[in-house]
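Each field is set out as follows.
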Amino acid sequence: MKAPALHQLSHVSRNLKDRLLAPNSMVVAGSTPFTVIHTVDLCSVRFYPSASKKFSTPLVVISPLAVNMLVYDIHPERSFIQFLNQTGFDIYLIDWGKPTRKHAGYTLETYIKQFLP
């Protein structure tokens, strides 16, 4: 085996070990601190205050219904939310929640007319 292939095999085996024996240690999404300031049914509004507030107008992030809002805070080094916070914005993020069978009758109209206001 060549040295790079051996290094890659070692890396793969460490990842496999972590995935099997310590899966919670690999979850880093949603690590930016926030406060839930409002909840309606399965939806909530998260507030991410900026430590270095430079802008008086906050940003509101509304993700598509089919996208888990964690994509905006996927990793501490690749977090859109954290980037905006460090830039100086307060952020409000709409978290649509995780629908279950109980929510099967919800339509786009339900989300827009009941939850978004």
